[in-house]
Design a protein that fits this description.
The chain is built from 7 helices and 19 strands. By secondary structure, the chain is α/β, with parallel strands linked by helices. Strands 1, 2, 5, 6, 7, 8 and 19 form a 7-stranded mixed sheet that branches.
């Protein structure tokens, strides 16, 4: 029989949203329990320097920032554990979350902050140069490529928006597009084509990266016909993936409303899901901004709403 533990507030996920929720829930005496998931600290731990999180004028590494938030949450009594949510039953309160397919947590309130996973091409070099020229967030890392040449992979709205953002910083932006057309909306396409700094490379695939102490270039294949292709190397300093994110929401989908991609839908301006007492914070419910500071803000909202819910229910 499964080991069952009862808690008032369960937080699933350990990025800026989860840790901030734990800080607020701890200060509200909710005795929160937080499970960190497979990647303690979340996506931010794959970023080297974070320069746009308020309060760190000299910048800070993503790992250090998450460690600071974790210590702050623990200071206020949050019980932070290593483990992964593998199943959920949100059909009625108290809600049941299974950890590592063994332990069952019965929770009066649940804050889901499981994040979203950036899609990569699957190249070994993407792992090799992670944080050394490879990024899945232009807004986070674009500043490090001022006056340098970079490449963005993708042909949708996100890729075009990232290319336009990078064009305001970099000296040259190559947009690497697998197909012979862009999938982005017409107005964004027009902005891309009008920008002198952006060069669109249609029918191109990135097959690898090279460089000694970081990315110095990308190996490309250009399709020239049905059976004809040309391989060549393109010198760049930054390689940005913009082919989408996958929200980590699968185990909650039988109970929570999501959009077509899998982002959890919340009441506008709040972290409230369609299940009372269950809240979603951070990138798992945010297909638009995906920033550490917006995730932290939503974690704050989720904890405040959880405290209100418990108070109203007399729990």
């Amino acid at each position: 029989m499964s080991d069952i533990e009862k808690v008032r507030c369960l937080i699933i996920g350990s990025g800026p949203a989860g840790y901030t929720a734990a800080i607020y829930a701890g200060r509200a005496n909710l005795s929160p329990v937080l499970y960190e998931g497979l990647q303690p600290g979340g996506q931010l731990t794959t970023t080297t320097d974070v320069e746009n999180f308020p309060g760190y004028p000299q910048s800070i590494t993503g790992t250090e920032l998450m460690e600071d938030l974790k210590k702050q949450a623990e200071r206020f009594g949050a019980d932070i554990r290593f483990g992964m949510a593998t199943a959920s039953d949100l059909s009625k309160a108290p809600y049941k979350i299974t950890i590592d397919e063994k332990k069952v947590i019965e929770a009066d309130t649940v804050i889901i902050s499981t994040g979203a996973t950036a899609k990569y091409l699957g190249l070994e070099d993407e792992k090799k140069y992670q944080g050394m020229g490879v990024s899945a967030c232009a807004t986070c890392d674009g500043f490090f490529y001022r006056n340098k040449e970079v490449a963005v992979v993708g042909g949708g709205d996100t890729a075009c928006e990232e290319a336009l953002f990078l064009a305001s910083l970099a000296s040259k932006v190559y947009l690497v597009v697998r197909k012979d057309y862009l999938r982005a909306s017409k107005i964004i396409q027009e902005r891309v084509f009008k920008n002198d700094k952006i060069e669109v490379l249609f029918e191109h695939n990135a097959i690898g990266l090279y460089g000694d102490d970081g990315v110095e270039g990308v190996h490309l294949v250009k399709r020239k016909g049905e059976a004809d292709e040309e391989k060549y190397d393109l010198p760049i300093s930054g390689f940005f993936l913009a082919i989408g994110h996958t929200p980590n929401s699968d185990i909650f989908k039988p109970y929570l409303k999501t959009d077509d991609v899998g982002y959890i839908l919340t009441e506008p301006g709040t972290p409230k899901t369609n299940v009372p007492g269950v809240f979603a914070a951070g990138d798992v419910a945010d297909p638009i901004y995906r920033q550490a500071v917006t995730a932290a803000g939503s974690g704050c909202k989720a904890a405040i709403e959880a405290e209100r819910y418990l108070s109203e229910k007399g729990l």
